[in-house]
Design brief:
Length: 278
């Protein structure tokens, strides 16, 4: 689009056309207009932040989306349980807008854990919350590859920062990075590699107890931080004891909530992937 050339004469005309200096409501109008501009900039800033955290996500493959209408309980064998799980996730997402708490979704492969976590993400983003999705496997890969590719060290550091500060972090398929359930339960299993343990512990403690900056800020304001400071949603195929074997109880107690109202167990659900393969 070309820049329009404005003659000085016509600029004066334009001014008198839009601003009546004798208008008794001029000040009020100008204030209203400024207020609107501020609101517009604030909205833009919120949307940019939401997009930034979304873009920092670590996906296994292409980014995924799953909306409220995509969850179809009728497609599951156990329709009642699917409906209950969908409703519970929906309610928890709305509660999470105003309060921080952790949620865990556990169950076998293909039962819909990631889908409901993504549904919660969409609701939260619609309510101006920043959400970051991190595949535990992808994070593990990044942690592993940083020694061969130095540029990945900076990427990992950058993602760690965003994982600390996202209003809501989805840690997807936690435990998968440690291998099969059989391997995890074998006698000589010693947990996932130490650097990954350290990394997950740092994320867990920063999100639960707050970062150093959070603590300084709270101190200055004279307020006590409530735990967890920021919400984390975990999806996993592993049971609690297995996760404690993979990481340790100090880490897991900060990530996995024991509150039944925040736990979604997909026990009796069948694997939808197998069904669609038939
Ligand atoms: N109730 C449902 N309505 C519509 N699609 C569903 C439903 N449940 C599961 N699916 C679909 O089934 C597939 C597997 O679901 P999803 O990836 O959420 O499972 P998961 O429990 O996270 O599995 P995994 O443990 O392997 O990660 C996805 O394509 C998902 O969209
Ligand atoms: Mg999944």
């Amino acid at each position: 689009m070309g820049i329009q050339k404005v003659e000085f004469g016509s600029l004066n005309d334009l001014f008198s056309e839009h601003v009546d200096i004798n208008d008794p409501h001029l000040k009020e109008r100008a204030e209203k207009r400024n207020q609107k501009m501020v609101e517009m900039y604030n909205r833009q800033a919120i949307e940019n932040r939401i997009r930034l955290y979304q873009d920092k996500s670590l996906w296994e493959g292409a980014p995924l989306k799953f909306g409220v209408d995509d969850w179809q309980p009728n497609r599951r064998k156990n329709v009642k349980q699917a409906r209950e799980l969908g409703n519970k996730a929906y309610k928890l997402a709305h509660q999470m807008v105003n309060k921080s708490f952790n949620v865990v979704m556990s169950g076998l492969a293909g039962v819909g854990k990631t889908s409901l976590a993504l549904m919660m993400a969409e609701i939260l983003q619609q309510h101006d919350k920043t959400v970051m999705f991190v595949s535990a496997d992808e994070l593990f890969r990044l942690c592993n590859d940083q020694y061969d590719f130095p540029e990945l060290k900076a990427k990992l550091r950058d993602r760690m920062h965003f994982m600390n500060y996202a209003d809501v972090l989805i840690l997807d398929d936690l435990g998968a990075e440690a291998g099969s359930v059989k391997q995890v339960n074998s006698k000589d299993f010693n947990g996932v590699r130490r650097d990954m343990q350290r990394l997950i512990y740092d994320i867990a403690s920063h999100r639960f107890e707050g970062t150093k900056e959070d603590k300084i800020k709270a101190n200055k304001k004279g307020i006590e931080l409530t735990h967890p400071v920021r919400s984390t949603i975990i999806t996993t195929n592993n049971v609690q004891e297995e996760l404690e074997r993979i990481y340790n109880s100090r880490t897991i107690s900060r990530l996995i909530t024991m509150k039944p109202e925040h736990r979604l167990a997909f026990n009796d659900m069948e694997d939808m992937r197998k069904e669609s393969d038939l």
